[in-house]
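Structure (tokenized):
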């Protein structure tokens, strides 16, 4: 009986983790689309962009990604994509 409950709990946790992963991917995709739309309609740039460009020139891309993560709270992939799009 205990094994059945344990299996159900593990299955439930797996399903929840999968849904969270899908939501994170959707948010990342929506954020990417939002950035593209903002560029097209001419929304003023974030001052962070200029700061990250300066950091990239002085200290390199890795430092810029680290700064981006600190300021925005992005994960590694999101921060890397953000910095890559600044070029």
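Design, position by position:
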């Amino acid at each position: 009986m205990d094994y059945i409950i344990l299996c159900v709990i593990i299955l439930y946790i797996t399903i929840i983790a999968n849904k969270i992963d899908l939501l994170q991917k959707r948010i990342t995709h929506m954020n990417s689309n939002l950035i593209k739309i903002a560029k097209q309609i001419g929304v003023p740039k974030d001052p962070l962009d200029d700061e990250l460009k300066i950091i990239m020139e002085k200290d390199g891309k890795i430092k810029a990604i680290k700064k981006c993560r600190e300021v925005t709270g992005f994960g590694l992939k999101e921060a890397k994509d953000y910095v890559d799009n600044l070029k």
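Reviewer-requested clarification: The chain has a mean pLDDT of 92. The chain has four helices and no strands.
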